[in-house]
């Protein structure tokens, strides 16, 4: 059930109930410093939901705290939105984030495959390939797996783990075109990690994480020349972490 008080006040009340300072709440949310969280408790914050990756992190730290104890569903409700509830259910790279939010929403670019995967999918993960390129080194993923590969040991117990092919040379020498990336959608990304960034418009970027603030994600690419640039978190639906790679 949506809070009857303004969303920013609901967040403040939840933090007080958890007996956390703003700095502690920021750390629980994977943010840098108290000011990174403070913006969400400001009347200037007009949205009625938090970014999905922030909610997933809070769901690891808040349940069980407070009186009455904060529930897992209560935390996940902070990230539900009309977009999530209205989108069609499916599977694929964004399913992990949407399942964590209790919605099951998936962008059109990553819908469930029409054909089943291997009989024993516990030992295999899907491979997604780019359907086409886009502006600013963006790509769009094909909606169905193009292959299935053996599940590596470091993804053995990770739900919704997947792999994807690198398109283009923007990340060379970190990643090369045609290389296979292994992705953990639940691993918190750290600076210097490779990340798969899903934007609300369906576009996908593979970059290196430089830093994250309360409003921006700064990433690095290497070709045609090394540069850093920032993306607004308002434009980002999910950030998944690359945990391994191999040549095809």
Structure description:
The protein has 248 residues and is α+β, with helices and mostly antiparallel strands. The chain has 2 domains: 7-80, 434 Repressor (Amino-terminal Domain) (Orthogonal Bundle); 120-246, Ribbon (Umud Fragment, subunit A). The protein contains 7 helices and 11 strands. The strands form 2 sheets. A 9-stranded mixed sheet has the order 4-1-5-6-11-7-8-9-10, with no helix packed on it. Strand 7 and strand 8 form a beta hairpin. The longest helix is centred in the first third of the chain and has 11 residues, at 7-17. The chain is globular, with a radius of gyration of 18 Å.
**Count of strand segments:** 11
Distance between the termini: 47 Å
Question: How many H/I helices?
Answer: 7
Biggest sheet details: 9 strands, mixed
Share of β-strand residues? 25-35%
Which radius of gyration do the C-alpha atoms yield?
A: 18 Å
Mean pLDDT: 76
**Structural class by secondary-structure content:** alpha+beta
Question: Ranges with pLDDT <50 over ≥5 residues?
Answer: 81-91, 98-119, 131-135
Please bin the fraction of helical residues: 10-25%
Give the total of domains.
2
User: What's the architecture of the largest domain in CATH terms?
Assistant: Ribbon
User: Outline, from the CA principal axes?
Assistant: globular
Can you tell me the CATH superfamily of the largest domain? Answer: Umud Fragment, subunit A
CATH class of the largest domain: Mainly Beta
The SSE string, one letter per element, is HHHHHHHEEEEEEEEEEE
